[in-house]
Amino acid sequence: MARVYPILKVTVIVLWSAFVIAPFLWALTTSFKTANGVTGGPTYIPFVDYEPSAAAWQGLFGGGGGSIDIAGPFASSMVVTLSASIVSLVLGTLAAYGLSRFSYKAGPIGNGDLTFFFVSQRIMPPVVLAIPFFLMLGWLGLLDTIAGLVIVYVALLLPIAVWVMVDFFNTIPRELDETAMIDGCTPFETFWRVILPNSVPGLVVAGIFCIIFGWNDFFFAFTLTFTQTQLLPVAIVSLNSSVTPWWSLSASALISVAPLIVIAFFVERYLDKGSIGGRK
Amino acid sequence: MTYVLDNLTVKQGGEVHLDGLSLTLPSSGVVTVIGRTQAGKTTLLKVLAGLIAPSSGSLTSGGENLLKIPAWRRRVGMVYQQFVNYPHLTVRDNITFPLKRRGMTKAAMEEKLTYVTELLGLAAFLDRRPAELSGGQQQRVALARSLVKDTEVLLLDEPLVNLDYKLREQLRDEFRRIFHASDNRLVVYATTEPLEAMIMQGQVVVLHEGRVVQAGDYREVYSRPANTMAATIFNDPPMNLFDARIGNGQVQFGPDTALALPAHFAALPSGDYIVGIRASEATLGDEVPARVALAEINGSTTVLHLDLPFGSLVLERDGVDPHAIGEQVRINLPTERFFAFDTKTRNLAAAPAGD
Q1: Burial of A240 (0-12, 13-18, 19+ CB in 10 A)
Q2: Is A201 part of a structural domain of the chain?
Q3: Is the per-residue pLDDT at B35 higher than 70?
Q4: In terms of residue numbers, what domain contains A173?
Q5: B131 interfacial to chain A (CB closer than 8 Å)
Q6: Does B159 touch chain A (CB under 8 A)?
Q7: CATH of the domain at A239
């Protein structure tokens, strides 16, 4: 058994890695093929199996007679996702600290109900929100604008931030807050000087969730914009035509997933920082 | 300036933590608050720190209402049972944290830091994070942070309970030395262990179910427990208590056991009483037959749980003395060490002289 286990472990890791990495390799090779290269049967090795061509990549950035430049939507997606994530993280962290540490009462409604109210926003199917959002942005004159999308995305991401951060703050012993107050911190200083510096792992997780959900949203990006503003997921889908352009779709899929991979590598070290509170 | 706690009640979510507690604490010295878990010790300390607002009652000092002052302006120090330090700060920054909040100058801060780190032997660890220290060192950092502030009140909530035995003994002695070194600071030390109260000396407050059972000098509480509850809480193992009948020059336990009436019971009217004897004062001997129900060896003492004809008794004796379960032994109950409590009120009726 003792010898079987390491072998089993390596086998599982290899299989799982292949399962995860294979689609990327597939997309990568496809993105360097021409139409004939894609339809002419499975080929994998450049220069041997097929003649690589950068046409798909050039086409995505307006070159090679292509009809689209994906750089604009990429930048818009970046701005919308990051702005909405930052706003959600700031508001969500403050709200979560309040919900975790202070008692609120409005008739029969208490902290638990408030927390559930936030989380329940994500239980609702997004389609329910499409018409209200459309009308509200219309009244504000913010349809088809970056600002309008940021507002809507904050509404979508805030519950995630609150949910993750309430859970995180609940794992920090209250005695830490109490000690800070005894040491002369007002409630806000307690939050700012003691709790926040010890919340980096929670903030990272909440931030990643916000960025992933914001970056990948298609539904609202699609329903609330027309011609002036276009986000990356919508731009990618609009590449599709009567003949599916697998080469450009593969290239754009890689572009769209790249920022998330970069973030994942960057923040990974924060994700397994041990528990807080000085206990061993 | 003494601290006057009057009729303090703390209720949280239907649970009563303090139940009309009234108490006067001196302005300096060590006061040990002793009680079992859930007796209200932590709640009492948190009210003193300003962390819990009581539902009713008052806390004043020299006529000033302390309840109006929030925790961050109350100027107390507190050490918890868990080792609470700021995980993101080094030991140095942990200790100087309260001083910075107060806007103390760098030079003054450095002087205080040096004093307190030498006092507690932390000089070697100043640049480490709390997580890199052992439990005992972490608790010393927490104590250092409380001491460095020079507060008038220092609260300690079972600070040694999470430490191993050896360290506990060592820190206990250090604590007593430090607490008694200053004569303008009130130290309130909460514990479940009578031994700690005896070692800390000073005043004792026995707490049970959110009320004060007895308050007084530690020697007084030990030698004259106000009632059976105080006798149980302030003795470890708890004092043995039996229903007994006093009269005809005898103390009668159950149908078969009668012992001669000791001199200090002579003035008691005849009748039913609860008679108590400390575990450490019953001895193996020849008077009363007993069966060993359980035998524990605790370091240097042996604790026997015995079934007597009229109840069960815990007997503690020095030395390692193994006994088999079920073994028949005989014991002596020295009557001159008997306590008598009233059956109804459970208050002390007579105590042995000269403890």
Answers
A1: exposed
A2: yes
A3: yes
A4: 71-271
A5: yes
A6: no
A7: 1.10.3720.10
